[in-house]
Structures are given as structure tokens and as C-alpha cells.
Amino acid sequence: MNAKGRVTLPIEQGMDDQLPGILSRLGADAVRNSDGTWLPEITAQLGVKVYETYFPARGQQDFALANPDARPRFYLMSERVAAPATGPLSIDIMKGYYKLQVEPDQGNLRRWWEVIDRTTGEVVPVDGWTVEGEGVDVTVTVAEPVPFHVYTVNFLAWQVWDSTQMYNYITNNWWDDESRVREIGYDARHPVAWEFMKSSLRAWCEERPEVDVVRFTTFFYHFTLVFNDLGKEKYVDWFGYSTSVNPLAMEAFEQEYGYQLRAEDFVDQGFYNSSFRVPSKVFRDWIEFTTRFVCSRVKELVDIVHEFGKEALMFLGDNWMGTEPYGELFASTGIDGVVGSVGSSATCRMISDIPGVKFTEGRFLPHFFPDVFRPGGDPLAEANESWLLARRAIARKPLDRIGYGGYLSLAVQFPDFMARVEQICDEFRSIHDEGQGRRPQDAPIRVAILNAWGRKRTWMTHMVAHALWYKQIYSYLGVIEALAGLPFDLKFISFDDARDGRLADFDVVLNVGAAETAFSGGSEWLDESLAVALRRFVHEGGGLIGIGEPTAVLANGAYFQLSDVLGVDKELGISLSTDRYPVEQPQHFITADLDDAAKVDVGEGAGDIFAVNDDTQILRLTDKSVDLATRETGNGRAVYVAGLPYSFDNARLLHRAIYWAAGREADFDAHWVPSDPGVEIAVFPEAGKAFVMNNRTDATSTTVSGRAKGLADGGDLTALTLDLEPMESRWIDLA
Amino acid sequence: MNAKGRVTLPIEQGMDDQLPGILSRLGADAVRNSDGTWLPEITAQLGVKVYETYFPARGQQDFALANPDARPRFYLMSERVAAPATGPLSIDIMKGYYKLQVEPDQGNLRRWWEVIDRTTGEVVPVDGWTVEGEGVDVTVTVAEPVPFHVYTVNFLAWQVWDSTQMYNYITNNWWDDESRVREIGYDARHPVAWEFMKSSLRAWCEERPEVDVVRFTTFFYHFTLVFNDLGKEKYVDWFGYSTSVNPLAMEAFEQEYGYQLRAEDFVDQGFYNSSFRVPSKVFRDWIEFTTRFVCSRVKELVDIVHEFGKEALMFLGDNWMGTEPYGELFASTGIDGVVGSVGSSATCRMISDIPGVKFTEGRFLPHFFPDVFRPGGDPLAEANESWLLARRAIARKPLDRIGYGGYLSLAVQFPDFMARVEQICDEFRSIHDEGQGRRPQDAPIRVAILNAWGRKRTWMTHMVAHALWYKQIYSYLGVIEALAGLPFDLKFISFDDARDGRLADFDVVLNVGAAETAFSGGSEWLDESLAVALRRFVHEGGGLIGIGEPTAVLANGAYFQLSDVLGVDKELGISLSTDRYPVEQPQHFITADLDDAAKVDVGEGAGDIFAVNDDTQILRLTDKSVDLATRETGNGRAVYVAGLPYSFDNARLLHRAIYWAAGREADFDAHWVPSDPGVEIAVFPEAGKAFVMNNRTDATSTTVSGRAKGLADGGDLTALTLDLEPMESRWIDLA
Ligand SMILES: [Mg+2]
Ligand SMILES: [Mg+2]
Ligand SMILES: [Mg+2]
């Protein structure tokens, strides 16, 4: 294979002889350093692009130490403490926090702090409490608390240690390494810091003519990451804006939005506006406000980079808050590319679908680090797992580039691994080459995921921190993961979009998640206009797929507010008096490809789900609870699934459920869907070809049928039988 | 054994020779007939009391047919139906109902019916809808519904078939039996019906000088029991008042309470005020109002019975609504006794604890019916199971009498069974004889179950219909079942009691149940005075035991409103960003008697429970979720258990948890608690004896230690080892 390019490799010193051969073999056209490695002098002669990492908001400790007022801040909440029978209540606000990370900011605390009675939700007047102590030992005393009410203190605090550097420092145990300092960040809102950021970047660019691509890691505000008194993670939200707050910003906000912000707007009862919370109006305003600020300042930094003829690449992580890659403003920053870590099909699409950038790049696993690249380690298996998940996403919407990180000198000690990487790079490039730069054809069914966040959290739902497994989310994340490799034009839309008539743009809408979350919708469903929009959509021919606890909020005699459409509702323990006679009728189009529909894995399930009446077809019943059901309502259809962890079978179930919900099941057998759910196909009708992927790690044989025109109607039906090697991908001709 | 009495047997014709021997052998001093049997002529010479069943509100079909206006009514709700995009909406209100049971009552329907928009909760003005049809085919049309809103009709309906007789008729398939009519009831509110009820009873008593005890089955209003269009049970609530409603009553209510009742007050969004619902003020008023009416009329009937020198016995079931045996008015009826079916320890206590009656009687299982008394049937096993559960309850609070029902001629064909019944009767009487008429001593710990119902639902919590198993309740019913045989002075108290200072009367309070139910409390916990009363109680030294989802309602940053006291809260999926590091510390006083604390059975559990901080001791953790935890707060203590199905081990766990919560664990080993949780003891210090029960069906050996003064402090500690036969009970001397 001679195709080259689209691959970034980490290189290091001491491998000068091998580097040209490795780069050529893998077709790498860009190189980067990694934490703890430096680019070799030979780099300039390799004929490849050079990436180098840049930190705008930390790393220059002298500046940070000289400008303590420029440190970033965040809002924190004390523990919940009950007031005694008589007398005042003292709260040690730092209890449970890490004193090397957090220092209460006592500047104008009567304006910026709040003491709240959490038994009633009422704010204690500022004259009702006092603050004693300084530095990291601070006590708040409520003079006359209501006996046995529970109180908390919302306080603004300085971040006295950068979160990511702290994480690395603690994880790598740098305590005795005198070359390491505890890095302090600085806030782009601070005028001196901002001027410093710009001049520093300019100087840095000037000093590095050899660098082609500035890899920003990242910009200003870190996602929320707070440590506990033992130096362990206490609160993490990869989507959190808690660290973007400071008095200057809050005052500017008030000027612009016409209302005052409160500490509680950020503390949010201790939930800190986690992305699982139905977002408040104020929080959405704050995101918009911060994004405008961040994007305009990012643009200024990108402009500097461009002045020097370099490209600007953003790492999707760390200090990425306010960039909002799926927001309206991101393209205006002029950023050239986005690079992010690929941990799954969904995170791959999260990168590759970002609109308005010149290129996207996925950093693949495994990282060339000694935890995997050691005697007994199996980097090959990790590479395969990562690639199989990424490939199906890339086949739907290609990343422009892929790359690796870590120490190349380690990786080359595993020749099998390097050979596999070579194959992966070739396979990746073939998707660009054979697909002729086009996306594969989508099924003629327009699909939307409906939640409180909509487009802003495209591919970013149900996640706490990047790709971490939680018992409470995997049954919903599986839906996103499945869709990341399925042939649908998928949009993420918000409840506001639904109310504003956007449902008309779709054939099938999914509402996925646990009750009370932003993804199911919680209190949003108390607004009848939302339920009416969905009910109209289905009655007039649309398809609704509910997974978990869709449309759930207890009101007016129902828990699922669209129980009449979905055909199911959840028993909370207050309607046990109603007799139910559920009957399983398992035969259905949507389970037709499963070996054993009885074994459908609904993950954690959704509790006790019942059919509201006999018009609901129950496909799977476990312990009298409905796991899977369908229903026709008006001219439309609905499907209910109790949970959908990612698996080949579940992806197929969802694939079919979407066809059925759209009333398009008659087309299914002519749409190039392999009989084996472990095989997927991306169809490129303009090229007259299709990319067949065996997602299994063993060989398989599958049949598939379709027409030369792809998923359109024209042409004769061709039926093929394909024998595929383990993990094989293959280009086939459609005709 | 010579002791006689306290036993009622069903007898029948054709056994004259055997009867005296059987009665003597079992010590029976009363006889009754059963459905389908008649007392033999010999009865008067048997020297025993004679019971006969009486139905005040049905059974006289001529009267019922002549007085259709006297038929009882109920409130029902139609299906939920969505309005179309344009035009009117027609609702077939009888869809899903049984036309042989239900006939819409169109009298003054503009006053008594309601059409409700269930999407908003708003009532449609009466001019906005019309009714077409008559009899059992009735359609309501909403002229201008809001498109895609969901509507229901609340309608008043005649009960055209008595619920219990319908149940028997359908169950026994009497359709082709021409001797059977479909019995219609009559309502005591109806003046003509009421006069008829009194005169009928008087005539009946006059005609039956041989009857000593009139067994009322029961009085006026049946518990809610509605059938579906296939003649199967559609809605059942053993505590439901839906059938006590009629316009006369509602008008009288309005006169007295000063406000108008609405159909929705009874329909309750389709939940029909199930006892699992947190009761509304209106529903509680209605219960009070109805109970005053029922009890005053019951008194008039009882007075008639007494006039004839007979006793009045009430069957606890069927038409028992408004008698409220644990209400203030029950004793004023003059009823002599209550008889009910014993299906468990808790249902036994539900009967035996009824205050203000001369005697209580338990009808034991198995019924002498052919379903059990057949070749291959095992009536002996059923008798043992029933007796073991009843015995531990009887040992705490004796029933005054026990009895059986059914066909004696069947039972005598099983000599082993009859021999066992003889033993059971003797064992039962020994509790009265040896206990010298006293209750056994309770532990010096005053215990309360706290819920929305309080005393009125003493032993009646978490039940849909008598002793039926539901997945959603068994994990809570186990608490009640355990307590029914444990040595505590237990009271059921309401949230109002707690707010009114009643907690001071107790050492340990339990809150048990699922979120949103009347038993956990749901929205009641939004009233801060309730949480404050409990928090004060614990801080000042009380013990709180929470089981399942105690104090749960999402507000002010907590789901369990007493999470600070219980030390745990529930993850709903909105606080996943908070890191948790739960550590199991299984060693604890409360699990000390369990072979393997790791195997504690929490039944259905309560979802994802987490410790709020490190001050909570987690005794058992499953999949990172807390099943069992303890915490000290202020001067008090709390215990959390995720669920507690009844078992010997769980009863012991609860026993110890109560001691620990009360701070009395140091006393435990001197309080006559057997080392084997399968053995229980009732201590009668005045008699100097204790009643030891082996609840196991196999032999066991157990140690036990205590003092001659029982559970008081005095006297030397005696330690015994007891070897017990399967199911054995034994009286031992304390000294
Ligand atoms: Mg629940
Ligand atoms: Mg009886
Ligand atoms: Mg949930």
C-alpha cells in the first residue's frame, strides 16, 4: 500500500535510525512529542508536520506566583450540618476539601457567599452569619439557626493548584521530585493574565519555527474537578462550568443579562449543574455568556498562531469549557482542528462530527505507556478493541486523521503490535480513498435524540467523565454507542426544539435515560406543550422510541407522561391496586435478527414497567415487568426498551426498531443490512462500493442484500454471502 | 389435656355420630356452618355456641330488585384518551369495565361527573361535554378538546352486582346453576333500605333462637373491587372507600364539612386513594365522615342483636369499610367480637390487637375445602405453616379464640391433620392458661412505625389485598411480619402525631417503604416540621430505623430528607459526579447472630444507596450500593436497611437493630433471646415462666439466658441450653 498521510505518531530522541522507516511504513505525516519526551534534532529532516503542546492558562509559575489575584476560582458547598437545639451553628467549610487545591476567597464574601437553610431552601440573610479564620481554615457561624434545620455554606474559593497538573502530580507521585512545582493557573478574565497569555504565546511561536501545529491543551477553564481531604477525586464533571466563575465575570454577566447571579446558581444544591441535571435558565445563560467570552479570546490566540503560519489544534478535554464545539460560535474561533481521545464509537463521532473545523483527529488506544507495553502486556488486543469500536464510527463519519501518543521506543518492542498499527493506518486511509471523500449513505430515516441539551451535547450524553463506566449510565450510553455506527442521519435536539416545531424534520425521535435526568427530561415534562408536541408527532405518523424512563415525571395519574403513546408506564408502588395481565408476544420485526430474543440484555433495566392496556405488544417480559414493547398510535408507532447496553445484538435491535418506528420495515431486507449483527456495512453508492466490517474477533459468514443504487429504490436486488476473517474489513462492489 | 374452649369448628349434616367426639377431642365450644353446609339438628344438644352468618346489605334479591335506587354506587374513571388534531373527542367510558357489574349513573351527571384534561389536570367545564347513550353503553363527547391532550371521564356508577357474590359466582362458575341469582346489594344511606335492613335483621333473629352469635359478613360498604370487561379483577384495594359514595352522602358531607366534594376526590387520577397513596385531606375527611355514619348504623344493628340475647361478631373483610377497627369509634358500636382470616403473623396481630372488643377470633388455614383436602394434598403442611406464623403472634398478643372453616367431613378423612389440629388447639389454650391471662413482657423499648396512616392502619400497612404477595411490597411487609412476633410494645403513629410531639413517647421509630407511598411519606416530607421533629428526636437520643426509601422526596439537594441522620441517600442518576469511596465494615452488634452477614436478604433492595460521608458505618455493600448501615448522630442512632423480607434471620436483625438504635445493646444477652434466630420466647415474669417456640420445621438446639424477673434487671443470670423438637413449643421456668 502506498497511500500516505492522515497519521500522527509520537517520536522521541535516540531512534534516529529507525524513524524514517517507521514513519514510512505507517504512512505517518505528522509527529508530536509526549509528556517526558523531546523531539529529536532529525525531526526537521523527516518531511513531516510537527505538533507541539501548548498550555495557555498554566505552566508559567513565576507569573502565577506574582499574580495571585489572577488565579482561577470555583464555587463550592460545605457539608450539610444540622443546627443544635439551642445556640449558634458553626460550619467548618473546608471539611472534606483538599487544602492544597482549595482556599476560600474571602473578598467581598457578603456579596459572593451564601448560607442556605437546606431544610427549607431559604437563604440566611448575610447579617445572620459571620466568618472566622483565614487561609484554608475558615469557619462560618450562623448566629440563630432554626434548631435541627440543616445548613450549608456556598463559598467562592481560589484554585491554588491546577486540576490536571495536580492529577498528574498525585498520580505519578511527584512529591519528592524537586524539579516539579505545583502549578497554579491563571484566569483569562484577569486583564494582566490575559495580556500575559497573548504575549507568552507570541513569544513561544517566535521561538519555535519548527512547530507546524500548536496543540492547545486547552484554553482557559478546566472542567469541574475537585479533590477531597485525602487528595482523591471528590467531584468530577467533564461538562462542568463551576471553574469558569469569578466576580469580574459575574458582574459582566449582570450588566449584560440584567439580573444578579447567586452562589446557588453555581452550587445548585450540591449538584453543581451536572450535565445530568435538567439545566436551569440561569445555567444555560451562564454557558452562553462564558462561551461567548471563551470563543472570542480563543480567536485572538488562534489569530496569533496563524500570524506565525502555524495551525491551531484544540485538544478536546481539560480546559475546554466554554469552547462548546457543537455551539454556534466554535467555528468563529478559527481553530483548524480538534484532537481527542477515542474510547468508543460515540467518542469517535463526538470528535469527527464537530462542524466547522478543517480537520479532526482521533488519538487511539493504547497509549504507548509502560502500563500496557510491558512483558505480559497485550497491546495488540487493546489496539484491536479500540479499532473495532472506532472503525464503525469512522465508516459513518471519518475522522480526518488518527494518531497515537506515548513512547514510540516502547511500541517498537512489540512487532505484532506495530504490524497491526500498519494495517489499521491502511484500513483507515482506505475509507477516505475508496469512499472518495464522501460520507456513506444513510438510511432514509431522519432520527433525533431528544433531551434537555440538544445539539450542544451531541454525542455527549450520559457521561460523567470521559468514557468511565457507571452502573447508572451504561444502559443508556449503549444507545449512543450503537447509533455511532448505524446508518442514520442523527441529530441531537432539545425540548425547546421540540416545542418550536423541529420534530417535523424527523421520522423517529428517541428519548433515553433515567427519570429526573436532563436526558429523560424530568420536570420539563410538566410543561404540557412538550408532551403535546410529541403526541402530535406520533399521531401524525412519527416514531417514538423510549428507553429507560422516558418522559418520566409523576403528574396527573401517569409517570411516563407519554404512557399513552409508549404503551407502558412505571409502577412506583402507588398503583399496585390495578390488576395487570401482561402477556408476552415475542414475535416481531425488531427482534427478528436475534438468535434468542428472550436473552435481550436490557442492562440495569428500568424497574417495574407495565403495559397500560392490551393495545401494547409486549415482546419481552421479565418477572412481570416489560423489557421491550411496541405500540401503534394514530398513524405512528412507538417502541419501548428498558435499557440498551451496547452489544452487536442490541445495536441490531435498535437498527430494526428505528425502521419499524418509521414504518419502513418493508425496506429493511433490501438495505444492505448483514444477517449477522456482528457485521456492519457502509454503503457508498456514488463509488458503487460498500465497506463491510466484521466487528467480531472471530470469523463469520453472513448474507446481505441490496441494490446497486445503495439504499435508494433503483436497481436489481443483489444477494451476497460473505465469508469474513476475524475483524476483517473489505470493500465490495454493489452491483 | 382437659382444658376446653376457645375453638370454633364448622360442622355439617350427616356426621351426627362423630360430632361429639370431634368437638370433645379438639375442645371446641362453638360451631358454625359454612358456604353450602347447614347445621345438623343435633346442634342444640352439642352444648356449644352456634354462629351463623348474616349479610345486612345483600342477599334479599326481591328487595334489591324492587329498589334499584338503593343500589350502592362507586366512582370510576374511563381510559385515558388523546384528543385528535381537530374536532371533538368521544370517550367510551365503559371500555374495560364489566357490564354485569357497572352501570353508569346518569342522575344529575352535570353535578357528579367530571371530565378532566389529564395533560394539564384542568377540569373541562360541564358545558364543554355531552353524554350519549344509556344503560351500559355510554359515550362522553368533549366538543372542543385541546388537540393531543389526554382526557378522562370520572363517572358515578351503580354497582349492579355485589362484589363478593360476583367473585364467588365467577370463581365457582355458577353461570348454569339456575338456583343462583346475581345478587344486588343495597345502601344503608337509602332510607328505605335502612329500614329494611333493621327489620330484616330483627325478623332473622326472631326466627333463629338457636343462634348464639350473629356473624356479620359484614356491614355496608365493600372494599374497592372492580372487574374488567372479561370478568376478571381490574382494581382491588382492601382499604378502598370508592364504594361508599353516593349523592346523599356527598350532600350530607358538604353540609357538615362546608365544602363540596368532586368526583376527582374519589377518582384521584385513577389511583382511587389506594392506601399506598399519601392520603389527601379530603380523603381523610371522607373516611372520618363515613366511619361516623357506618359505626352509628352498626351500633343500631348490634343493639337489635343484643335485644335478642345474641352476640354480634364482625368478619374483618368484605363490606368492612367505615368500621375502622383501630378508629376511635369502633368500640362504640358495641360489637362483641371480630373474626378474621389469619394468613401471617401480622394479620393475626391485626385481629388480636383490635381494641375495645370482648373477643377476637382467628380463622386458621387451611380451609377445609377440596382444593387442599384431596388425594395428594398436604393439609398437614399447610396447618403447620399457618400455625408457626400465627403462634409467634399469638404468644405476643393472644387471639381469644381460633377456628376453622369449610367441610368437616373432608378434614376427618385426614387423621394426621386432625391430630395436628388437636395439638394446635391445646397449644393455643396453653398460652392462655399458663400465661394466666397476661401479655408476655415486652422489651423496655418503645417502638413506633411512622407513616401517613398511623394508628388507623395498625398492622395494615403495605397491603393491596389480604396477604397477596407483590414484588413491590414483600421487602417492607417483612418488617411488619417480624415485629408481629417480636417482644416490643409497638405503636403505629402518623406524621401528624410526629409533628404534634408524640415522638417523645418512643425510643425507636421506624419509617418503612417505597418513595411516593404513604408508608415512606412522599410529599409529607416537604413539610420541614416533620423532618425537624425526627431530627430532634434522634439528636436528643432517639433511634431511627429506615427501611427501603425512608423520608424520600427530592428537595433541597437530598432525596432522603433525613439523609444526614440515616447516613445514606439514594442516587437517582443526578449526582454521579460526586465520587464515593464506600468501605464495608461488617462487624456490628446488629448482625452478630447471623451465620453469614454477607447473605442478609434485602429482598428487592432500594436501588443505588450511598453513604453521605465516612461517619456512616456500612455493614453490607452490594455492587457499591449500601444494603445495611448504621450511624450515630447527636445522642441518637440510626439504622438503614435496604429491604427486609420476613425470615428468621431478618427478624433477628431487626430485633437487634431496635436494641442498638435504642442504645440498649448491653442488655440484649440477658433478655432471654435465644441464640438461634429460629427460636423465639415469650416471657411471663409474673408466672415465672416463658413460652419457647421452635419456629423451625426441624429440630434445633439453642442457648438462652435471662433473669427470673424477666426483662427487668433483677435476679441472677440463668443460662440454659434447650434441645427442641421440630416446631416444638415448651413452657420453661425462668428461675
Ligand atoms: Mg420506587
Ligand atoms: Mg370462625
Ligand atoms: Mg431512577
TrEMBL record, chains A, B:
Location of the Lacto-N-biose phosphorylase-like N-terminal TIM barrel domain: 5-441
One family name in Pfam for this protein: LBP_M
Gene3D superfamilies named among the record's database cross-references: 3.40.50.880, Glycosidases (3.20.20.80), Golgi alpha-mannosidase II (2.60.40.1180), Immunoglobulins (2.60.40.10)
Taxonomic superkingdom: Bacteria
InterPro entries the record matches: Class_I_gatase-like (IPR029062), Glyco_hydro_b (IPR013780), Ig-like_fold (IPR013783), Lact_bio_phlase-like_N (IPR035080), Lacto-N-biose_phosphorylase (IPR012711), LBP_M (IPR035363)
Lacto-N-biose phosphorylase central domain: residues covered: 446-665
Protein known as: 1,3-beta-galactosyl-N-acetylhexosamine phosphorylase
Lineage per the UniProt record: Bacteria, Bacillati, Actinomycetota, Actinomycetes, Propionibacteriales
Gene: gnpA
